[in-house]
């Protein structure tokens, strides 16, 4: 497995939000982390990235135990995050935003990112705060790819975006998958992940309520009603 969490517990201050989450992403896989708002998806993402400490449990990347490693070390080992809310640098240009995270010798170059998102090429001299939500998301994905991630983690990848832009983002993720990119997609909406994800993990109140093949989830309307915003 490229990344594997076992019995992961995390939270804020004394408040435990995750109560023993098991989750893994293998080579070339897209795994969806689902659940209604507030169920712990973002907390799981932060704990995987090392932005929140694990209160219990272990996280491995390949054979390496990364539980105690800080976020930048995990990033270097191959975790690339597209955070909720995108977090592009507002006063840097598109190009400067991209250069800020580029890792020398990675699989992705600036021209590769521009080829993936031609709109970013057109707007390379615009500042982060001049971009539409969709363009910001493209920039956030481009930035994460330039860190040469073995696993790309997206938190609410299309939240607040127009349907046409949403479809563009999903199509891009499908292309990345075809190229073998492993992806963890945290999302509250099932529709978003049906065509993309191989497996799904559903969180309820910081615990895993269900895990299995996306096709099985798609076929089970009752399961969807119980746990998801559809
Ligand atoms: N900084 C924080 N301090 C304290 N509690 C928090 C903090 N961030 C989140 N929580 C709590 O942790 C729980 C899980 O939140 P989390 O953001 O992980 O959920 P989520 O499934 O990602 O939902 P959303 O899609 O709304 O972000 C919620 O009860 C939330 O109130």
From TrEMBL:
Signal peptide residues on this chain, from the entry's feature table: none
Listed PROSITE patterns: ABC_TRANSPORTER_1, ABC_TRANSPORTER_2
Pfam hit, one: ABC_tran
CDD domains documented for this protein: ABC_TM1139_LivF_branched (cd03224)
Keyword Nucleotide-binding among record annotations: yes
Entry keywords, A to Z: Amino-acid transport, ATP-binding, Nucleotide-binding, Transport
Protein name listed in UniProt: Amino acid/amide ABC transporter ATP-binding protein 2, HAAT family
Residues annotated as domain ABC transporter: 3-230
Family to which this protein belongs: Belongs to the ABC transporter superfamily.
InterPro entries given in the database record: AAA+_ATPase (IPR003593), ABC_transporter-like_ATP-bd (IPR003439), ABC_transporter-like_CS (IPR017871), BCAA_Transport_ATP-bd_LivF (IPR052156), P-loop_NTPase (IPR027417)
Gene3D superfamilies: P-loop containing nucleotide triphosphate hydrolases
Protein's GO biological process: L-amino acid transport
Organism domain of life: Bacteria
The keyword DNA-binding belongs to this UniProt entry's keyword annotation: no
Species whose genome carries this gene: Caenispirillum bisanense
